Amino acid sequence: MVKFLSIGVLLVAFSAPLLAVEDYEDHDSMLMDHGDGHLMDMGGGMVMGQNADTLPGGCDSISETKEITVHAGHKYAEKFPGRMYAFDTQEFNFKPCTKLTVHFINEDHIRHQWMMHGLPKYLYPKGMFHLEVSGPAKISGTLILPPGDKTYLVHCDIAQHMEKGMKAQLKVGKGDGDLPSIPGVTAPTFADDYKATLPELAVKAQAQAKVDEAAAIKAAVAAKQAAADKQAGIVAKPANAPQDDSLFSGTMVIGLALGLIIAPFLAKKYQGMTVSEGVAFSFEKLSQLIGTVVKLLIRIVGFFFSKKNKALPSE
Ligand SMILES: [Cu+2]
Known about the structure:
It is a single chain. The termini are far apart. A hairpin with a 5-residue loop joins strand 3 and strand 4 (46-48). The protein is elongated, with a radius of gyration of 43 Å. The strands form 2 sheets. It has an 8-stranded mixed beta sheet, with no helix packed on it. The longest helix is centred in the last third of the chain and has 35 residues, at 198-232. The protein has a domain at 22-172: Cupredoxins -  blue copper proteins (Immunoglobulin-like). 35% of the residues lie in helices and 21% in strands. By secondary structure, it is of the alpha+beta class. Bound molecules: copper (II) ion (CU). Copper (II) ion (CU) is lined by residues 85, 112-113, 156, 158, 161, 166. Copper (II) ion is lined by residues 85, 112-113, 156, 158, 161, 166.
């Protein structure tokens, strides 16, 4: 009885945390303040540029207090052809001097950031407000937006994540234009070209199919003809008869004959020599032969040049 009871208690004890677990890890309560708006935790969560109470220059007061939740992950890129990662929102708009809290939920099993650029550097280190966490996890941070109409870049700075679609723009006031390559908002700087070449490729494929069909018909006709010939007793020579590549090719026969003729002379010459003497003798003969050939060549060349140098008959 005690055994069953203890097993039951253990089961409940172990399943409770499993049931209580959310689909992502919440880092908000784990963060440690490192000063200067820099918060970190042991789980790899990070907030930089946290500012919940210092007004940027030009703001008399906080105009609005806003809270947004931004999701990040591969699944949000599915609606953008050629993209790999994305935020669930590509464009944000707030009044100047808004106190903004961003809850960033990274749904991928990798690291993502919500990084905002171009903020006043006297208030935000390197002009950045930055949330970062390895997912699936949630992390939150607060900043006070500057005054004036300006468009800020928001992106994930992990290598290639912005290029693969994790890019957005945050307009304060009316903003000051649009940024390029915001998925679904602005045209990409370097567009992936999928549709433009499709008709061209289709035409090519059709032409190739026609060629293949013609070849197949030709082959079938040839096979039929061959069968008919066979029936009629005609033995056709294969069109591509393999070349005679037997061991005793003409060149080899000539080589063997020459060898047989020269061998007795060489045997006489090398008689009574040691191996080294034989090699030295061979080299000597070879150099003599080369010398003779070179002399002959010089003579031939000289002969031609002397002919060319002769005065041409005058007209
Ligand atoms: Cu990322």
